């Protein structure tokens, strides 16, 4: 397993409202992209309000934990459960691996995806995700014979602090289908970097 490198100085945290983001240049990041109907805004607001009422110290972190549990419950249409749609996303991820980013680990769940990647060759995370989501939304809608929103506009991102965090995140990503009750072993899940080759 390759240790992540931090080539550029991170620019720091920023927020567009409810979601914290980290602009870190070529810093390795944990990304979650979710389908447009997988997490209603009212649920997100309720999570934050409940945590604020409890005076939780790290609200952003605790919000992410609640969000991940909610996503694993399979809310929404779960278009990514369709094999043809998941294949569109998988093929797109693999196409630019090594050109726009180094993809360490990934998983495609029914209503969201997790990625562990590092932007390379001066590709910003924002440009990578915009290009990926735009292309896959168009192609997935063709498969589904529908039109309209596919992905939620904002993704969740968390920069990787050190090697221990990197390994823990890799483990989390590849074990997500097991944790959600979708398969017995991570290597059984076809749409994952763990498929056929368990590492943990």
| Shape field | globular
Give me the Rg, rounded.
16 Å
In percent, how helical is the residue content?
25-40%
Helix tally?
5
Label the CATH architecture of the domain at 18-38 and 79-188: 2-Layer Sandwich
For CATH, the homologous superfamily of the domain at 18-38 and 79-188 is named as Transposase IS200-like
Would you report the number of β strands?
6
- What's the helix-strand series? EEEHHHEEHEH
Task: Please provide a written account of the structure.
- It is a single chain.
- With 200 residues, the protein is an alpha+beta fold.
- It has a domain at 18-38 and 79-188: Transposase IS200-like (Alpha-Beta Plaits), CATH 3.30.70.1290.
- The chain contains 5 helices and 6 strands; from the N terminus they run E-E-E-H-H-H-E-E-H-E-H.
- The strands form 2 sheets. The protein has a 4-stranded antiparallel sheet with strand order 4-5-3-6.
- Strand 4 (101-108) and strand 5 form a beta hairpin.
- The chain is globular.
Note the topology:
Layout lengths: L11 E4 L4 E4 L5 E6 L6 H13 L5 H14 L10 H13 L5 E8 L3 E8 L5 H20 L11 E4 L3 H17 L21
Antiparallel strand pairs: 1-2, 3-5, 3-6, 4-5
